[in-house]
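To whoever is on call:

I kicked off a structure prediction for a single chain this morning and the downstream step that reads the tokens threw a length-mismatch warning. I double-checked the sequence; it's 137 residues and nothing unusual in it as far as I can see. Pasting both halves so you can look.
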Amino acid sequence: MHSRIEQIYVEYFKDTFDNLGLKRHAEDKWSIEFKNESFRVQLLDDRGLIELGIGPNFDNASFINVELCNALVTFLKFPDELNASERRKILRTRLDFKAQALFIVDNFERLNEMLSTSNYLITFDQINTLRKIDSPF
């Protein structure tokens, strides 16, 4: 059922997820969710494209694409140092599976903070603002 997702999980994410305590939490035909005490992640098969999303533990519907999380973390590190062109380039950056797993490890504490009950609404507002920066409309 999950052959492609399962293959990607085992090859690129299993060790990382195990080390971070992310346990298989839920699954359906197109996705597998993992959860630890800090946040949830989802591997999603979107018409053959496997995507990784990150979300808070207490909002069962919301996930943020890992590339948007990467952009937000980068923007927060350099709030005044990036011009509009650099911001668009960062927003359009795709991470391969190895880079996605490394991003989660390297930013575990920050993700925990961003997705906490006291900060997740701010984080989602910031993500929505980032989406507008890259929007053609």
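Update from on-call: the warning came from a stale cache, not from the record. Cleared it. Sanity check on the structure: Strands lie at 23-27, 31-35, 40-46, 49-55, 64-65.
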